[in-house]
Amino acid sequence: MNTTKDNSTILFCDYYKQWITVYKEGAIRTVTMKKYLMAHHWLEKLVPDLIISDLDRISYQKLLNDYASTHEHQTTLDFHHHIKCAVLDAVDEGLISRDPTRKAIIKGKQPGDKKIKYLNQFELHKLIEDLTLEQKISWDWFILLVAKTGMRFSEALALTPKDFDFAHQSLSISKTWDYKGDGGFLPTKNTSSVRKIQIDWQTVMQFSNLLKNLPEDEPIFAGTTKVYNSTLNGILARHCKNAGIPVIAIHGLRHTHASLLLFAGVSIASVARRLGHSSMTTTQKTYLHIIQELESKDVDIIMRSLSNLN
Q1: What is the topology classification, in CATH, of domain 5-92?
Q2: Domain ranges of the chain
Q3: pLDDT tens readout for residues 23-54
């Protein structure tokens, strides 16, 4: 950015807004841009009068502490990361004398007990039985496909007939759908999200008939009207109530898919690849309570195996 010595009197929140416009606008995904804009909103709320040249380690730590008083530790860490790059640029430009983010302490409220919501195998069968699977594309087919593949909501919306390889029983995930914006294709969440998912023969037969005569490169589910996550959650909730099972959200179908694979003995590495996680660590953190439950069962198996050695 073009800066002069007079810029040292600029408000920090104004500098940050200018920095977002120059360096981030048009270079990042809309969903990521919203996070930077939200960080700017909090700067205006917490330090509206802070001049950039007055930003030192104490004022920066106080900013983080104030933010952390109403947010969890991970959210505070994300906030820190979203503004740190701008601060370091201001240091390089001579607007701040020393790096105020050095040795910053990240605090935050303790996260609540967030147990992921998913269905067991019996409940999933009940849900599928309640779906109306006619010979035309519908949101019930969408629900079935997400349950059988563990795709993210945006990934499933971006599917085109061309993504199906019926001969090899696979589904290519290479893009997402901008359902939060104006529609259109977007890149996947990360490079690991680009993947092929094997699908069962029944799904192959069903979708090979459904997709006949549909345009190869156009989305199957995301049409001309805007798609809302809440709309799909409402449809799924209705089916759950009809089936007499716990109500979950569309994302809960992804958790259901992963949990069924883990309980079936599929390795964490394979589940991570199928879900498109950037690392097995993500899978382990997300499904920690399931893994712990499986480990307790493993102990019983180990003990029985050892007792047979006598």
Answers
A1: DNA polymerase; domain 1 (1.10.150)
A2: 5-92, 121-300
A3: 999 888 888 899 999 999 999 999 999 999 99
